[in-house]
Write a structure and sequence with these properties.
Elements (H helix, E strand, L loop, with lengths): L6 E8 L9 H16 L8 E5 L9 H4 L9 E4 L5 H14 L5 E8 L25 H16 L3 H15 L15 H5 L3 E3 L2 E2 L9 E8 L1 H7 L5 E10 L16 H15 L8 E3 L5 H10 L8 H6 L16 H5 L6 H14 L13 E8 L3 E9 L1
Parallel strand pairs: 2-3, 2-4, 9-10
Antiparallel strand pairs: 1-7, 1-8, 4-7, 5-6, 8-11, 10-11
Length: 385
């Protein structure tokens, strides 16, 4: 689906990820009021609300946002695993793009310590005709080992990806991991082994968090006399396609084909190419993901991701700054709000308000690319105006 009308990011907000800094309801209100203040319009002008959560109880959410105001607007809950926040943003964007609404808001949140999700590993016969469930840690380990065999990738390269993201997180006051000193490749490699070759510092933490975004039409900008300095120029949603050898439940986040298809559909919608990207947010729950996605979205050719990393091209000073807020590994990954947190970061980078973590060359285009178990993929491209 492509967008029919212009959509602008009007306001963004976010609580610090991790814990135990706040109760979840306080995080939601903090992120939401920050987005409302940033948008410079009253909450009463928001016409529809999309709540993204993959862990909260079924009735959690609407009672909390009542504190923003009882305005009678529709409230829709969305769940799509790690891609939940991206899905909520997608629905908010297309509600405006369609011309149905002028101002919408997506609020995404989660706290793993209050998870309502059952332990599927202990439920018998939940999917008797499918393959046994493969834990994410094991799945990404297999991805990494295969990459090492095919292209000679080393644990040091994976550690370099993780160290970059840890150090970017040090510059992000909203990040869960804020190390007091620079994280080196050696420190990453020396942390506890999870599933070879991934160590604990190569994997994302899953603390609590909340993030919010308000989007609006051009007519709304004119009505309220506010400027739209960031525009959504692509909003794509994709799922898997069958291919020989396809894994059904084992593919935690789906095949590389889905990742590439979603990205290149977004490029086509935005009328740009990967070479035009100035800031990028990926699903880097484990270090191997970011490395593979460099190639999947066209930043480099097959087998060239290791060189791209080691040449510094994905650093804040490089050609394709990636995970500038720390990504999943540094910022944290509470599941639900992560996709909206990506929009928060891209918006600040495109506005030039990212502070010490601002990329060297002010970007014109930013890519938010996130996947979810099942498998689904949401890809958005934002552009400075």
């Amino acid at each position: 689906m492509t967008m029919a009308n212009d959509v602008f990011v009007l306001g963004v907000g976010m609580s610090r990820f991790g814990g135990p800094y706040q109760q979840l309801d306080s995080r939601i209100i903090e992120a939401s009021t920050e987005a409302i203040d940033d948008a410079a319009i009253p909450y009463s002008e928001v016409q529809s609300l999309y709540l993204g959560t993959s862990l909260a109880a079924s009735t959690y959410g609407p009672p909390v946002v009542k504190d923003l105001g009882l305005t009678g607007i529709p409230v829709t809950r969305i769940e799509n695993a790690s891609a939940t926040g991206g899905a909520a943003f997608y629905e908010a964007v297309h509600a405006v793009s369609s011309g149905r609404l002028d101002v919408t808001m997506a609020i995404a949140f989660d706290d793993p310590s209050t998870s309502a999700v059952p332990d599927f590993n202990n439920v018998e016969d939940i999917s008797p005709i499918l393959d046994p469930f493969v834990p994410p840690m094991a799945f990404f380990s297999m991805w990494a080992v295969r990459r090492m065999e095919e292209f000679g990738t080393t644990p040091e390269t994976l550690a370099a990806v993780a160290a970059k993201n840890w150090n970017n997180a040090r510059l992000n006051p909203k990040a869960e991991r804020q190390a007091t000193e620079e994280i080196t490749i050696e420190r990453v490699l020396g942390s506890r082994m999870l599933a070879y070759p991934h160590t604990a510092r190569m994997a994302a933490p899953q603390g609590a968090g909340a993030a919010a975004v308000i989007v609006a039409s051009k007519a709304a900008l004119e009505k309220f006399g506010v400027s739209g300095d960031v525009k959504v120029v692509a909003a794509q949603a994709h799922s898997e396609r069958y291919a020989p050898g396809h894994l059904f439940t084992g593919a935690i986040i789906g095949p590389p084909e889905m990742v590439s298809r979603a990205a290149f559909a977004a490029y086509e919608e935005a009328s740009i190419g990967p070479e035009d990207l100035g800031v990028i947010a990926f699903h880097d729950a484990y270090a191997i993901e970011e490395l593979l996605y460099y190639e999947a979205v066209g930043l480099c050719g097959p087998g060239e991701a290791d060189r791209l990393m080691h040449d510094g091209e994905t650093q804040l000073t490089g050609r394709f700054p990636t995970s500038t807020d720390g990504g999943f590994i540094g910022r944290g990954h509470p599941s639900g709000p992560t996709g909206v947190a990506q929009i928060w970061e891209l918006t600040h980078q495109l506005r030039g308000s990212a502070g010490d973590r601002a990329v060297k060359h002010k970007p014109s285009n930013g890519l938010a690319h996130i996947v979810g178990a099942g498998s689904v993929c949401y890809t958005h491209i934002l552009q400075s105006c």
